[in-house]
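Request from the bench team (R.T.):
"We need a structural guess for the complex before ordering more adenosine-5'-triphosphate. Sequence and SMILES attached. Just send the tokens back."

Command: build protein-adenosine-5'-triphosphate structure.
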Amino acid sequence: MSRFFKLLFNELMKIFVRKTTWVMYGILTVIVIAGIILTITTDQIETEYSDNWREELKQENENLAEENAEMKRGSEESGIDFGVTYFEEQINKNNYYLENDIKPLNYGAWQHVLDNAGLVSLISLFTIIIGSGIVSSEFRWGTIKLLLIRPVSRTMILASKFVAVLLFALFTLIFLWIVSFISGAIVFGFEGFNPSIVLQKAEGLVYVPLVGEVLTEYGYNLVNLVMMTTFAFMISTIFRNSSIAIGLGIFLMMGGNMVVQIFSEYDWAKFILFANTNLRQYETGNVWIDGMTLGFSITMLIIYFVVFIVLSWVFFNKRDVAGQ
Amino acid sequence: MSQIALELKDVKKTISKKEIIKGLSFNVKQGEVYGFIGPNGAGKTTTIRMIVGLMKLSDGDIKVLGKSIQSDYSEAAKNIGAIVENPELYPFMSGWKNLIHFANMYEGISKDRIREVVKLVGLEKVINDKVKKYSLGMRQRLGIAQAILHKPSVLILDEPTNGLDPAGIREIRQYIKDLAVKENVAVIISSHLLSEIELICDRIGIIKHGELISERSVNDQDDSKSEETKQKVLLDVEQVDHAEGILKELEIPVNREGGQLFVELTRQEVPGIVKQLVNKDIAIYTVATTKVTLEDEFLELTGGNVIE
Ligand SMILES: Nc1ncnc2c1ncn2[C@@H]1O[C@H](COP(=O)(O)OP(=O)(O)OP(=O)(O)O)[C@@H](O)[C@H]1O
Ligand SMILES: [Mg+2]
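Reply to R.T.: structure attached below.
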């Protein structure tokens, strides 16, 4: 087992010694900070509630209702129906606080982390890039010839590479949490160790612990990350070319939902990977294709994952390493 | 008693229906330096790739210290160190990190051992620089360093002196000989530099179109020339025309190349001829037997290289 950790160490060393990796971390930091600046300057979020919070909430609701009415007018004129708007949802939440006599949380570090969950797609992008290069680069550099002549099975080398990619994603995720949390705490304040907030769920408005919500929100986003990274990893192992893998990986990550929409009339659409990567659909009850269940989606995800891994393994193990 | 370190038994390789290696067999003993030569496209690199496990065999078997690379890969691979074609290392890492990386793929290689190897190949000063800043010769040395880190019993070098300066070539040559003699390592060298091969190897195998067409010892070469066989003898004399005439009178076929004469003589004939020339007042500067160079022999054996 210690052998495997040494291989893993090697792979992580090769990832983190390179400048491109640190550029990724730089981009992530810049985006988080830009987000904060945007939030402050546009004053989108009511960050402070004083002891007089009931009055403040009512005032906020009036403002929101006004904006909502304006928006409704706009949508009638343009003929586009926005459905339940962000404003209405916010008004409902505020009413929930008032009815249940709960003082709403001041915006702070935890909520900032939650709001940055969308950045997981950026981490997915980075991880796809790393995962696409980890095997094919060895071929490009010619170092594969020095890698595969050691008393270590190819299976072990491939496994260490795959795990290293997942660890990269995990480290980047933790980095995002830390940066979001610290910057949030400095700029907006700290909500306490186990704060709760009101959220819109399938069953209506609920008052839930924020930490749990952070974990589920990120968890849902991670499904797509893992699946697309594994896919890109497979493509790069089969074709030994990172450009194809990055291209396909990013295209499918962005366009996956569209693929499902195009084929959504057909019954077999539910077998498409992307119909199953959004597990949140079962929580909100807004299931894309009738007849799909959480169990079905998880089974499909596991099947796809295993197929990707097995194909990578077969191609990596069976192929001769001939000259370029 | 030197044991067989590397054994190839009827090795065949077919790539896309074309048989590239057609039943290759040879052994390399411990402590022996084996030269593996052949024209372009003969199958040297393909054979080496099979020995180190980069390519699978189509037929036959390869054993390292008796362990088959097919059924006991990890045990066999432990005892192999290699550079396959150019030593391509990670350009974005330092030489040191590169060595740490490869040391991690074995059990129990200490930092001291790595330092020792760095010293051996003379890279102490630049070992913390990034490999992309290295010259070809420095990379070659680092390539050798990674190949010997784990003290392999079989060392395989494809063009090991490629890109080295004369001092470097001599150093590496000496080092390879030391490895063979002192540490009993079997070294297989593939090279195009035939004079180089001749200087360093104990035995030579010549491969053409995927078959071993000749195999022999380098040192045996002189012994095999027995007393009766004719050798090419060079005569460097003052009065070339005169001497040529005398030799023709003696009915000895003579070749004139530049200002020198070449005759085919057996060993016993040489003193008599010299005496005759001296008696005729010919001033002789040099009498030397010229070895048939490996190059001549190589070209003779392999013919013109027609790439199949
Ligand atoms: N991947 C491959 N697919 C098909 N044929 C190949 C492949 N690799 C090598 N060959 C063929 O195998 C033969 C032997 O090639 P190899 O590289 O082993 O020769 P070599 O002796 O190393 O030559 P050189 O002296 O030029 O390095 C050549 O005819 C080559 O065309
Ligand atoms: Mg070659």
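Two things stood out. The longest helix of chain B spans residues 166-183. Residues A 322-323; B 15-16, 20, 38, 40-46, 308 surround adenosine-5'-triphosphate (ligand 1) (CB under 6 Å).
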